[in-house]
């Protein structure tokens, strides 16, 4: 990577350091950045959790996590040892004022030079305010301390406002980094480059030329070990309110004045505030919720959601929404947002369908041009367009694809989203993090959907595990004369 510089020495204090997120994502991300020379040798990672572990015991857990989640070819014993030397551990319940704060203060006090101090809250969001209050009471928040908040920021607008207020009492907004790992994905960031660094796309990126946009995040797996969490969340809260609305903002926003954080985030907020509200008249035809039932996935028979859960539930594992943006650029262009468990394939992508040519020049009507931005897996871009069929003397057309696979094209390991985001917080660079007004604007738009679904005003549909979802979602697009991307192929 050509522009990866070493950051200033830092202390990363992780609350929830024994949890799955820390072991699966945070520690491997910091390890990879150490291998790239971005993490200085004097940096420290200070894990805190309620578990009464010794430092050596936590280091052993960290080694096991790296062994499991770092690619074998990237696991270097000398680098791992150097990384483990950076790791400290304090047994501490961050939500309680009478916990072992003296232990954390002692570790933080032992440093040879000034360090940037970052607090990472990998805990339940309802603890964010209490942790912030205790850090303030203990005098551990320095003038430029940063705090990273994991999603979800609340479960609705009210709780989001409470969390933002609780943290905001002790950290200035410019030092609050609300993380959405989708924004850390290189392919998502590439939407900005694709749109504004290529005059071809910049010229046609509007409702004058674009017929529809689809944003999909689908998984092969079911809820598995996250059933208890997922049943209190659902696909709408878990994916749409944060990740997919952020993607929509990047696809639809006006060109920002610069790539500085507030200019980009101002442009995104403008999109969220321009989303046409969904109400009683549009909810039945513009939203679909569903649960997967018993089916086949990866060659095996799998249980339905309620079977996995063990009891009845009104929580959706599939959501599809039809959104419109009230702006001159996007007037009457439908944006279809979809997220689901147990689909036929794992896919996260943006599909932009361009309007067909009005010309009658050719004997057959040209196929619509389609641009596909693959977020994961197989990150890249595919451009579907029409050429003359070389076997047809009468100017018959042939649909073809220009396909770019980023990892193969650039001959580099594609980094995990958390790698950049963790060090952007150290740098104090918030462009890929979410501002408070973004969070609250997103909750305001999804609130009527959540309320209607809670009252069963939109019936629960069903789809077999291993399929592409319920028939109701196809019908939603059919009313606009559109089809899902998998049906185009």
From TrEMBL:
Q: Which EC number(s) are documented for this chain?
A: 1.1.1.49
Residues that hold substrate according to the record: 181, 185, 219, 238, 341, 346
Q: Where is the Glucose-6-phosphate dehydrogenase NAD-binding domain?
A: 13-190
- Sites binding NADP(+) sit at 50, 151
Q: Which keywords appear in this protein's UniProt record, sorted alphabetically?
A: Carbohydrate metabolism, Glucose metabolism, NADP, Oxidoreductase
Domain Glucose-6-phosphate dehydrogenase C-terminal, residue spans: 193-485
Q: Does the keyword Iron apply?
A: no
Instruction: List the InterPro entries hit by this protein, alphabetically.
Output: G6P_DH, G6P_DH_AS, G6P_DH_C, G6P_DH_NAD-bd, NAD(P)-bd_dom_sf
Catalytic site residues? 243
Q: Might you name a Gene Ontology BP term for this protein? A: pentose-phosphate shunt, oxidative branch
Cellular component GO terms held in the UniProt record: cytosol
Q: Give me the reactions it catalyses.
A: D-glucose 6-phosphate + NADP(+) = 6-phospho-D-glucono-1,5-lactone + NADPH + H(+)
Give the pathway listed in the UniProt entry for this protein. Carbohydrate degradation; pentose phosphate pathway; D-ribulose 5-phosphate from D-glucose 6-phosphate (oxidative stage): step 1/3
The record, for Pfam families, names:
G6PD_C, G6PD_N
The kind of enzyme this is, by top-level EC class, is oxidoreductase
Q: Which Gene3D superfamilies match?
A: Dihydrodipicolinate Reductase, domain 2 (3.30.360.10), NAD(P)-binding Rossmann-like Domain (3.40.50.720)
State the function annotated in the UniProt record.
Catalyzes the oxidation of glucose 6-phosphate to 6-phosphogluconolactone.
Name the family the entry cites: Belongs to the glucose-6-phosphate dehydrogenase family.
Protein name (record): Glucose-6-phosphate 1-dehydrogenase
Q: Which organism is it from?
A: Asaia bogorensis NBRC 16594
């Amino acid at each position: 990577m050509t522009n990866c510089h070493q950051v200033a020495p830092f202390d990363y204090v992780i609350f929830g350091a024994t949890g799955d997120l820390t072991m699966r994502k945070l520690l491997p991300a910091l390890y990879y950045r150490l291998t790239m020379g971005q993490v200085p040798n004097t940096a420290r990672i200070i894990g805190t959790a309620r578990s009464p572990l010794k430092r050596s015991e936590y280091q052993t857990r960290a080694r096991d996590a790296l062994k499991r989640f770092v690619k074998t070819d990237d696991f270097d014993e000398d680098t791992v040892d150097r990384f483990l030397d950076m790791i400290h551990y304090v047994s501490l319940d961050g939500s309680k004022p009478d916990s072992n704060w003296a232990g954390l203060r002692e570790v933080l006090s032992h440093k040879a030079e000034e360090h940037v101090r970052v607090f990472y809250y990998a805990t339940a969001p309802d603890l964010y305010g209490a942790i912030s209050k205790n850090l303030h009471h203990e005098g551990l928040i320095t003038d430029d301390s940063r705090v990273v908040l994991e999603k979800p920021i609340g479960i609705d607008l009210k709780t989001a406002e409470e969390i933002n207020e609780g943290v905001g009492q002790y950290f200035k907004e410019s030092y609050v980094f609300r993380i959405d790992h989708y924004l850390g994905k290189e392919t998502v960031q590439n939407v900005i480059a694709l749109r504004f660094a290529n005059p071809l796309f910049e010229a046609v990126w509007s409702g004058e030329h674009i017929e529809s946009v689809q944003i999909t995040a689908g998984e092969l797996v079911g809820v598995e070990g996250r059933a208890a969490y997922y049943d209190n969340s659902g696909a709408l809260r878990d994916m749409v309110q944060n990740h997919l609305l952020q993607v929509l903002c990047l696809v639809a926003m006006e060109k920002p004045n610069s790539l500085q954080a507030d200019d980009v985030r101002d442009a995104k907020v403008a999109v969220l505030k321009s989303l046409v509200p969904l109400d009683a008249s549009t909810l039945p035809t513009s939203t679909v919720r569903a649960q997967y039932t018993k089916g086949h996935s990866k060659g095996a028979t799998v249980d339905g959601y309620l079977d996995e859960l063990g009891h009845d539930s009104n929580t959706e594992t599939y959501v599809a929404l039809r959104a419109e943006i009230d702006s001159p650029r996007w007037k009457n262009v439908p944006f279809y947002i979809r997220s689901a468990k147990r689909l036929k394939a794992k896919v996260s992508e943006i599909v932009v369908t361009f309007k067909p040519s009005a010309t009658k020049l050719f004997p057959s009507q040209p196929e619509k041009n389609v641009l596909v931005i693959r977020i994961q897996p197989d990150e890249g871009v595919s451009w579907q367009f029409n050429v003359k069929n070389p076997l047809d003397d009468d100017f018959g057309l042939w649909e073809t694809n220009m396909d770019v696979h980023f990892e193969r094209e650039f001959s580099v390991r594609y980094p995990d989203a958390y790698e950049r985001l963790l060090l952007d917080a150290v740098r104090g660079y918030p462009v890929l993090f979410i501002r408070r007004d973004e969070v609250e604007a997103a909750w305001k738009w999804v609130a009527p959907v959540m309320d209607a679904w809670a009252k069963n005003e939109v019936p629960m549909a069903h789809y077999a595990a291993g399929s592409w979802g319920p028939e109701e979602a196809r019908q939603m697009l059919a009313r606009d004369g559109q089809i899902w991307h998998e049906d185009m192929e």
